[in-house]
Each structure stands twice: as C-alpha cells, then as structure tokens.
TrEMBL record:
It comes from Cryobacterium melibiosiphilum. The chain crosses the membrane at residues 29-50, 56-73, 80-95, 101-119, 126-145, 165-186. GO terms for molecular function: ATP binding; phosphorelay sensor kinase activity; protein dimerization activity. Keywords: ATP-binding, Kinase, Membrane, Nucleotide-binding, Phosphoprotein, Transferase, Transmembrane, Transmembrane helix, Two-component regulatory system. The keyword Phosphoprotein applies. InterPro entries: HATPase_C_sf, HATPase_dom, Sensor_HK_TwoCompSys, Sig_transdc_His_kin_sub3_dim/P. This is histidine kinase. SUPFAM superfamilies: ATPase domain of HSP90 chaperone/DNA topoisomerase II/histidine kinase (SSF55874).
Length: 454
C-alpha cells in the first residue's frame, strides 16, 4: 500500500460515499438515453447485415430498453441495476435477440457503478463476483457445447491438442478476464479516490477551523500581553507617584526642599511611564517588518534592577540589591521577565507592606539557572511552620501576580509566592538556563583546542 493510501485511511471504514446531486442524476439519464440510442442503432445495423437471427422486433425493442434503460439508476441502485443488466445480457446472448457491442459497454458500466457507488462494500463485492462467475460459467458452457457441434464455426478445426477452436476459446477467456477485471478494478479505484477526496476535504475543513481558532487565540494572547505590559508600566510608576505626592503634600509647608525632591521623583516617574508607553505603543503600531527590526516593548533587563531599587528607596521603602554568583549572559526574554517580576513585587510592597517595611532583592546566578528573590518585612499574611500550603491570601490571585505567573511560565520558569514564617512576603522566581551557554571571553583570548580522540 502506498503512503498516499495509508494517509487517506483516517476515515471510518464504514464510510458511505454520498450520492450525487440532482445534476449528477440528470447526467445518468442522459447517459442511459445515449446508450439506449447506441444499442438500438447497433442492433439495427447487425440485423441489416444478417449477422444475428431474425427475432421479432418487439423482443428486440424490449431487450434494448432493459439493457440500457436501467443505467439511469446506476448510482441510486447500483446492485439492482447490475443484476438486471447482467440477466438481460445473458438472455439476449442465449436467444440471439441482441448484439454484444453496446451490450458489453452497458454491462461494463453497470459493474463499474457497483464498485464505485455501492453503500455496502461487502454486498458490492459479492454482487460483482456472482455476476462475473455466472458469466464465466455461461462462457465455458457455450465453448463446450460448440466444441461438440460441427455446424458451429465449421471453419475452426477441433483436431489436435491445441486446435484452432481451442485457441479461439482461450482468446475468449482472456478477453473476458481483462474485461471483468477492468470493470472490477476501476470501480474500486473510483470508490477509493472518492474516499481520499472526502478525507482531504475533511482535513481541509479541520485545518481551516484550527486556523480560525489559532487566530482567535493569538488575538487573545496579544490582548493579555498588552494588558500585562500596561499593568506593569502604569501600576509601578503610578504607585511611586502616589507615594511621593502624599509625602510632598504632608511636608510642603515645613520642608519645601524635601517636597520639591518628592515632586522631582513624581516628574521622573511620569516621564519614565510615558517613555515606556510610547515605546510599547510604537511597537504595536509598527508593521511586521518594522516590529521585527525594532526593539521589544520592554527593553529593561537584569542590568536595570538597580534603577528599580533606587525608585523603591525614593518611594519610601528601603531596598537593598545583592547579586550572588558570577554574572553570566541571560536571554532577553528571561531578563525582561526578571525585571517585571522585581518591579511588580516592589510595587506590591509599597502598596501592601505598610509603614516601616523594607525590601531586599537577591539575584542569584547558578550553574544552570538564574534565580531572583524579593522579600519584605511588611505586615502581610503569616504562615506557620506546619503549613504545607500558602494561605489563600498568599496564593496570589491579583492581576499583578497573575501577570508574574504568566511571564515566568512563558519562559519555562518556576514561581513561588507566599508569606514568610517570620512575617512579610516573599517572591521567588527561578529560570533555567542552558548549561552549555558560552561564557564571553576577553578580547584576544582563544578557547583551548580540544584533545584528539583516542
């Protein structure tokens, strides 16, 4: 079996070929009329040439109608049509009513239609085999009878092991074998071709539906990404501006210099938010080629964590940043995720930790991973040492924490959110890195030559 045939087999083995349209049935009627006319003309010419016996015209007319007329139903009732035409063909041949030229074409079309259009493949197979077997039984019987009749084909000698009459009989058998094999084979081929076409059409519909679903999912994911970016940009900077505006309002009368510094932080946060929003919106509005060549909506990576710590300290939350391990190259997507996780965590600290809280950011480089941990000493929910799972409040169901989870999972990372046993809150994100990632070499340095294999 060829790969094409195997690829068409996902259809149910009980698949039924759909019937043709009304136009197809009209074509069958036209074919039946054409075969009817051809058969009538062939019989007329044969009778005029004196080849066939002088049967009554009414018998010949009935034979012609029954031989070609059922072809109008060959795709509606293929088995019944084939049986009727085979029976009429045999009767006409035995009694010399008709000729075999157009009658053979009608029988071929009937057997072909059974294989191509039957709804029951088992019944189709047995009907065709019975017709073919009956035709060969009749053929052998006629050859045997005529072999013992000297008046039948007297020009063909019966003498010898392989006489001229034996050669004639062998030729008749070979012609009929080829005739019935072609009708059987091409009928099955037509049915299999229709099955493959139906399978291809079904797969085409499935692919079109999948393409529509994928397009809808892409739109949804893009909306989620935009919402996440907007939340990260707006929430962080607005929270800083809110804290500084409140501080400036309280100390405006007694400490104008500190109030001016707070207003400066507000201005800086506003400008930073506008710059990030313009960068992100510019990327979203750009064409595909420009978007591919332009920078990402967020260009902040691990190199900008110190800026977040400075902003947090300016917002009234003492924040320490420590880097553990030897720094190594970090992919841009992971670097952006680390930056946004730290940004969201420090924003939540300013919102929920309460007065007097402090925060600490630890960036840890490991052999095959990079980990960032943000902790605070605020008055968040507490967990006990015996708690196996974080409390509902610690599970993180807000939009910010949901965004953190999505970012971390998008780069195959792991995220832990929860309250600390000694008070406060902890956010830990771990991102796997390729252990074979090359370490940058200083200029002029070359990598050691590999030792030859033994």
């Amino acid at each position: 079996m060829t790969p094409v045939a195997r690829s068409a087999e996902p259809l149910d083995p009980a698949w039924r070929r759909p019937r043709p349209s009304t136009r197809g049935y009209r074509r069958d009627s036209v074919l039946a009329l054409a075969m009817l006319g051809g058969t009538a003309l062939s019989v007329t010419l044969t009778r005029a040439a004196g080849v066939m016996s002088e049967s009554p015209w009414w018998q010949v007319a009935i034979w012609v109608v029954l031989m070609a007329g059922p072809l109008a139903l060959r795709r509606r009732l293929p088995e019944l049509v084939a049986l009727v035409i085979a029976l009429v063909f045999g009767v006409g041949a035995m009694f010399g009513v008709g000729d075999g030229f157009f009658a053979s074409i009608c029988l071929y079309l009937a057997i072909y239609a059974v294989g191509a259009w039957s709804h029951n493949q088992v019944l189709s197979r047995w009907v065709r085999l019975c017709i073919i077997a009956g035709m060969f039984i009749w053929l052998f019987w006629q050859l045997i009878v005529q072999a013992n009749q000297a008046t039948a084909m007297p020009d063909l000698s019966r003498d010898g092991f392989f006489s001229p009459y034996a050669a004639f009989g062998m030729l008749q058998v070979l012609i009929n074998l080829l005739y019935f094999w072609a009708a059987y084979y091409f009928g099955d081929t037509a049915w299999q071709s229709a099955q493959r076409s139906a399978a291809l059409a079904e797969r085409t519909r499935e692919l079109a539906a999948e393409r529509e679903r994928t397009a809808a999912q892409a739109v949804t994911l893009e909306r989620v990404r935009i919402a996440r970016e907007l939340h990260d940009v707006v929430a962080h900077h607005v929270s800083v501006m809110g804290v500084q505006a409140g501080a400036a309002r309280r100390i405006l009368d007694r400490d104008p210099i500190a109030a001016a510094a707070a207003l400066g932080v507000i201005e800086h946060s506003a400008r930073s938010a506008i710059d990030e929003l313009q960068t992100m919106l510019g990327t979203l509005r750009a064409d595909d080629d420009q978007a591919g060549a332009s920078q990402s909506p967020s260009t902040h990576t691990v190199d900008h964590l110190s800026d977040l710590a400075d902003e947090s300290r300016a917002g009234g939350v003492p924040t320490a940043l420590s880097i553990i391990g030897d720094p190594r190259p970090v992919p841009g997507t992971i670097g952006q995720s680390i930056y946004r996780v730290v940004q969201e965590s420090l924003t939540n600290t300013r919102k929920h930790a309460g007065r007097g809280a402090s925060a600490e950011v630890r960036l840890r480089y490991e052999t095959d991973a990079v980990e960032v941990e943000i902790t605070d000493t605020g008055s968040g929910p507490r967990v006990t040492a015996s708690s196996a799972l974080p409390t509902p409040a610690a599970s993180g169901c807000g939009l910010g924490q949901r965004g953190m989870r999505e970012r971390v999972l998008a780069v195959n990372g792991q995220l832990h959110l929860g309250a600390r046993p000694r008070g406060g809150y902890i956010v830990r994100a771990r991102f796997p890195l390729l252990s074979t990632q090359p370490i940058p070499q200083p200029l002029g340095a070359t990598a050691p030559e590999p030792e030859p294999a033994a």
